[in-house]
Structure formats: structure tokens, C-alpha cells
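Researcher: Please translate sequence to C-alpha cells.
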Amino acid sequence: MKHGKKYQDSAKQVERTKFYDTAEALDLCVKTATAKFDETVELHVRLGVDSRHADQQVRGAVVLPNGTGKNVRVLVFAKGEKADAAQEAGAEFVGAEDMMARIQNEGFMDFDVVIASPDMMGVVGRLGKILGPRGLMPNPKAGTVTPDVAKAVQEAKAGKIEYRLDKTNIIHCPIGKASFGPEKLQENLSTLMDAIVKAKPSAAKGQYIRSAVVATTMGPGIKLNPAHFIS
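Model: Translation complete:
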């Protein structure tokens, strides 16, 4: 893959074989974010688990102290008082069977997070083939299936993110925007890493945090020292 001049200039500032401490790595992230838009900073963590086994799954959600810098559009499946509460909490879209039909028939997908009250899962379940592959299916572990939909909406708006393993045992998560600066990004990264460490399955053997990399949307990957995290 051929990279542009800006990427190449940024990559020259990063030692490819070096493991950076988080403060230095995030400082570099901010310096190498040279795009004309406010780049997202992402954390990629490879874990020493096997996601093919149910007892080695790592999944959860955490509210980043400084948010993600993204305007999160929330869809809530709820009826009655819960629907009213979701709207008051700031959800952009609230509905039930009508919303299911809109997604199925019109291809409506203008939302970033889906929340559902437990009694709505029969309806939401019919959208599994659409929402599942996009990582949007509500899940109790992520706090997106809950009787308190208003609280879930508020948390989503405040910067709650879900972390989960992909098929290669890596977690990919945004930790903010380059404009946040190194200190706020560090706070977000520490909060996320603490959650991932606490979520270590009892069946996991050996080194848990195998590698960790931070990178901006258009910038080079910067390796973190995995020894800084409990493994």
C-alpha cells in the first residue's frame, strides 16, 4: 500500500521498533495528526486469549471520562413511559415495530448506537442479520439492553464505548480526537485499558496483553509497551 507524503513525513517521527510509554506515544499521535479534519485516535489491543472459546470472550462497555468527541446518534426500541423517557434523555430516534419496519424496508441506518428495553428484544431480534454484522445489536453486557433506557441514552451521549474482540483476538476502540491533546487522551486510554484488564477471563493463560498500538485516522501506528499494563 502506497502512502502519501503527509503519512510518510509522520512515519519518520515514529521509531517502528520502539515501544513507547503512553504519554510519549499520545504526544506523538497528536503531533502526527496532520489531516485537514480532526482525526480520531484509536487504540488496538491484541489479547492472549482465543475468542473461539466462549469462556475466553472479552466484551464490555465503559464511559470515557472525556467522551469520544463524536456526536452520537441514538436509536431506542421502547414503548410507553420508557419511550417518553428515552426521548427526554436525548435519543434521536425512538420506536418499536415501526422502527423495525423502517430499517428492514427503507434501509434506515442513520444511528450509531442501538438501545432496547428487555421487552423489545423480540422485535429487535428480527433485525439481527442487519444490526449484528455492523456491531449494533443491543447486548446486556454492553448495557444496551436495559430497563433504564434513559440512563443508557445519557451514557451513550457522554462517551460510552463498547469493546469486544474481533476474530483475530484484537480490540479496536476510539479513545478521542487529536484535538483533545495528550492528557485527555491518556485519561481515556487508561480508563479503557483498566476495563479491559479487569475483564480478563479466568480461562486465559499466559500473557494477557500481547500488544497495544495507538494511531490516528491517517497516521502511523505507535507501539505501546505492554509491560505498562498488567498482564
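Researcher: Any highlights?
Model: The mean pLDDT is 90.
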